[in-house]
Amino acid sequence: MVPGQRPASYQPRPTAWVHRHVLPLQANGLLPYGDFSIGWSQLEDLVRYIDHQEERHRTQTFQEEYRNLLNKYHMEFDERYVWD
Q1: Are 53 and 1 within 8 A, CB to CB?
Q2: Which of helix, strand or coil describes residue 77?
Q3: Residue 65 CB burial class (10 angstroms; 0-12, 13-18, ≥19)
Q4: Average pLDDT in the 30-37 region?
Q5: Which of 25, 32, 42, 43 is the most buried (most CB within 10 A)?
Q6: Against a cut of 0.85, is the pTM above it?
Q7: What does the alpha-carbon distance between residue 46 and residue 82 come to, in Å, rounded to a whole number?
Q8: Do residues 22 and 31 make contact, with C-beta atoms less than 8 angstroms apart?
Q9: What's the alpha-carbon Rg for the chain, to the nearest Å?
Q10: Of 34, 42, 37, 23, residue with least CA distance to 67
Q11: Which residues contact 32 (CB under 8 A, 6 or more apart)?
């Protein structure tokens, strides 16, 4: 894949919806979130990961998923400051 080129399976996400509904919640501290960056070589994996998120959340909570990501990438964290 060439930088700037999208994979065939790419579906644009509704950016306006995110700005209208998600960002105000984050700004008010009402929505837990994490911020991760990826490289172009990981884009297809990310799209697949997002596509299967609803299925994954049937068997694992957001907290379990987030904790697993932090552990997978060897990120140190303190449980006292991660959750409400």
Answers
A1: no
A2: coil
A3: middle
A4: 66
A5: 43
A6: no
A7: 23
A8: yes
A9: 15
A10: 34
A11: 62, 66, 83, 84
